[in-house]
Amino acid sequence: MAGSRGLTGPKARNVIARPEGPGYPSHKSTKPCKGVTHMSQSLANIVVHLVFSTKGRRPLLRDQERGELHAYITGVLKNLNSPLIEINSVRDHIHILFA
């Protein structure tokens, strides 16, 4: 809307789009109400479910090694500032849920 009225720079931010024409009151002030602050915001929450499997789905992940594997993957995700939500594995694959 600011461009259609020919305003640029800091004054362009104060233009408020209003309907115009018969039946609509004309407004002289283009400044927002006192104390009103408009802030844009974007939020994202991406959750990844990653599954790794052994080659040929062979049952190679032994119970005593899975704990170390979980700890290693947890450390990698912490270093990447990516919070781990859940990790679990069986003999032939591992599930990792992280954000």
Structure, briefly:
With 99 residues, the chain is an alpha+beta fold. It is 17% helix and 18% strand. It contains one helix and three strands, in the order βαββ.
SSE blueprint and pairings:
Blueprint: E1 48-53, H1 63-79, E2 84-89, E3 93-98
Antiparallel strand pairs: 1-3, 2-3
Detailed description of the structure:
- The chain has 99 residues and is of the alpha+beta class.
- The radius of gyration is 28 Å and the shape is elongated.
- Helix content is 17%, strand content 18%.
- It has a domain at 48-98: Transposase IS200-like (Alpha-Beta Plaits, 2-Layer Sandwich), CATH 3.30.70.1290.
Order of helices and strands: EHEE
- Average the pLDDT over all residues and give the rounded result: 79
Strand content: 15-25%
- Class inferred from helices and paired strands: alpha+beta
Q: Count of DSSP E strands? A: 3
* Largest sheet: spatial strand order: 1-3-2
Largest sheet: 3 strands, antiparallel
As a percent range, the share of helical residues equals: 10-25%
- The dominant shape is elongated
Q: Which stretches of 5+ consecutive residues score pLDDT under 50?
A: none
Could you say what the CATH topology of the domain at 48-98 is called?
A: Alpha-Beta Plaits
CATH architecture of the domain at 48-98: 2-Layer Sandwich
Separation, N- and C-terminal Cα atoms = 38 Å
CATH class of the domain at 48-98: Alpha Beta
Number of helices: 1
Q: Taking Cα atoms only, what radius of gyration do you get, to the nearest Å?
A: 28 Å
Name given to the CATH homologous superfamily of the domain at 48-98: Transposase IS200-like
